[in-house]
Every structure is written in C-alpha cells, then in structure tokens.
Amino acid sequence: MKAVLFDLDGVITDTAKFHFLAWRDLGSELGIEVDEAFNEELKGVSRIDSLERILAQGGVADKYSSAEKDELCVKKNAHYLELIKEMTPADILPGIIPLLEELKAAGIKMIVTSASKNAPGILDLLQVRAYFNGIVDAATVKAGKPAPDIFLAGAQLAGADPADCVGVEDAASGVEAIKAAGIVAVAVGDEQVLALADRVLSSTADLSLAVLQEAWENSKK
Ligand code: BG6
Ligand code: MG
C-alpha cells in the first residue's frame, strides 16, 4: 500500500450532517421533501448533481433554467458555509488524527479525494491540511462520484498505481467510485449501504494503518 485516498465529508469530519440540513431546508423551500433516507443517495454527490437529484425527486427537473439552478446551488452553499463556519480541530472524527500520524510515520502518501469545492477551506478549519500530499480539485474532475475519475486523479497525484492505493469513504457513491477505479475500498458506516466495499467499519475510530494494510493485502490474495 503506497497511498491512502481520503474522502472528507463523513470521513475526516461530520460535515455530512450539515450538507443534509442545507439540502433539507432548500428542498422545503421548493416544496420537496429531503429526508434522511433520500439524503443517503446524495452523499458523495457533487453540489449540482445533488440539486438535480432533488429536483428530479420533486418531479420538477425541467422547471428551472441552468441559471436558476446555479442560484439555488449558491444559496445552498451559503447556508452550508454558515453551518460550518465555527468548525475547529475538535470536529475531527475519532481515530483520524492517530491514523494520519501512523500513515505519515510509515511514509504512505495521503490525498484528499472529496467531491467538495469547500474541501481546502474545511481542511484549514480543522488544521489538518499539512498532513496531505495533495487535494484533488473537485472543480477539475469531469465526472463526479460514482464515476472513478476523482480516485484515479488521486492515485495520479500520489504518484501511485491505483492497485497500490486504498480509498476511504462513507458514501455508497464513493465506494462505487473507488471500486470502479480498481482501488481497494474501506468504508465507514452501514454495512448494507456500503456493501460494495472490501471492508466496512462501524466507526472512524476503528480505522488504523493495520486495518487499511490488511484490506489491501487481502485484495491481493
Ligand atoms: C461531498 C458531500 O463530499 O461533497 C456531498 O458528500 C456534497 O454531500 C459534495 O454535495 C459537494 O460539496 P460542496 O461543498 O462542493 O457543495
Ligand atoms: Mg463522504
């Protein structure tokens, strides 16, 4: 294992709940219910693709022009930024700092492969940016998760073959993207939702170099 490709929202910090709140409120303004079950399908999905899914859910995908959709995205993001602005290193999920320390000591590359355009700012708020060898710029990725593009870009940024990487995700779309890239997937969350992953952990506290290394080695057997 030469590199670990990290999702951010829901893996490094629990911003997934803030994305949910912001989409839920925007949905309710539009008369479309975004409940937790539907939100599960939005995890890992880019801002514009999430909006498209919400509008489709409400049966109004054709009602908005592309300029109006952009405005709705700006509105959602403004609310999201308001929700996350007080974030501090105390909001880093359990087990993440020990994992980053272990990987750093072992000389394993670490890359952030988040669909979020807010990723660099969040890494700064959490004061963890220095751990990472690179952040894939979500704006430059053509096809979002579940397409493999972002994880292939992550492997390239690490200078590693996809076969020598492990991806860490909390979303079904993200696990699908990792697997489509030919990368070993370790997921954190519900085993049924994340069934495609090579290994599913119930908490980030269970993440460790040994667990990632084992998942990678098992895939080579
Ligand atoms: C992903 C989140 O990490 O980033 C999604 O799981 C979100 O919920 C996506 O829509 C895009 O984020 P942003 O910050 O660019 O709107
Ligand atoms: Mg995520």
Bound small molecules, by name, code or SMILES, are: 6-O-phosphono-beta-D-glucopyranose, magnesium ion
Order of helices and strands: EHHHHHEHEHEHEEH
Question: Got a strand count?
Answer: 6
Low-confidence regions: none
The count of helical stretches stands at 9
Summing up helix and strand content along with how strands pair, one would put the structural category as alpha/beta
Q: How would you describe this structure to a colleague?
A:
By secondary structure, the protein is an alpha/beta fold. The protein has two domains: 3-14 and 89-218, 3-Layer(aba) Sandwich (Rossmann fold), CATH 3.40.50; 16-84, Putative phosphatase, domain 2 (DNA polymerase, domain 1). Helix content is 44%, strand content 10%. It has nine helices and six strands; from the N terminus they run E-H-H-H-H-H-E-H-E-H-E-H-E-E-H. The protein has helices at 16-30, 36-40, 47-57, 66-84, 96-105, 119-126, 149-158, 172-180, 209-219, and strands at residues 3-6, 109-112, 134-135, 165-169, 184-188, 199-201. The chain has a six-stranded parallel β-sheet with strand order 3-2-1-4-5-6, sandwiched between helices. Strand 2 (109-112), helix 6 (119-126) and strand 3 (134-135) form a beta-alpha-beta unit. Helix 1 crosses helix 4 and helix 3 crosses helix 4. It is globular. The mean pLDDT is 97. The structure holds 6-O-phosphono-beta-D-glucopyranose and magnesium ion. 6-O-phosphono-beta-D-glucopyranose binds at residues 8-9, 16, 19, 42-47, 50, 77, 114-118, 171. Keywords: Isomerase, Magnesium, Metal-binding. InterPro entries: B-phosphoglucomutase_hydrolase, Beta-PGM, HAD-like_sf, HAD-SF_hydro_IA, HAD_sf, PGP-like_dom2. Mg(2+) binds at residues 7, 9, 169-170. This is Beta-phosphoglucomutase. Substrate binds at residues 7-9, 23, 42-47, 50, 76, 114-118, 145.
